[in-house]
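Supplementary Methods, section 5.1.

A reviewer requested that the exact input to the structure prediction be made available. We therefore reproduce it here, unchanged from the version used in the analyses.
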Amino acid sequence: MMNLTKENIQFIDTYLEQSDVKHIDIRMEMVDHVASEIENRIDAGDTRNFYYVFKDYMLEHKSFLLENNNRFLRQTTKKLSNQLLKSFFSIRSFTLLAVFTAIIYFGFNNYDSELMKNVLLISMIFLIIAPAICYFFALKKFNYNRFSGIERLGFFFSFLLQFINIVNITGANFIKNQNHLLITSIVMALVFTFILVFIRLSVLTFKDYKYRYNNLC
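The structure derived from this sequence is encoded token-by-token as follows.
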């Protein structure tokens, strides 16, 4: 089978980027698909220059590819949601949950409960917002490629922030009752565990797509 050159692959990537396929992970899937189709045409007997084969293919299939852009976004959300839940319900996460519960419960029993609650809530918000700020700063400052996988994980930002707000409202009453301190500690530990699982999955997703894209191009 005829293999396209690296320059051919980069040409396809540039064309798709200029066609408003901004996310590198989506372009990666499209570039791989387009390159395979062009190779098949050349192997089937099309002896023209790569550029002309590519041009004809895009005239026929560009609309379909751009429609797949939106479909891929939906698939990414579903895939990442499943990965997030799988990572959360793991031995690693349950170990983190137990450790966080013990630390938070100890803090509530040995320090001012209201102060402890506020420190924990601020820490949660910081852990959610800081990675997002770093990501978008890197995009602007270093001109990194955008990753739909990372940005789609941002869907969980609103969920976490709303959950933290609930913890803030209910926790104010719970920490006044010694019998409820353990429940409050477990709930807060759950949030911290979920946030760390979220951050870890974001980093792994970024590295995976970047590695695959670099190998492709």
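The two ends are 18 Å apart (CA to CA). These observations are discussed further in the main text.
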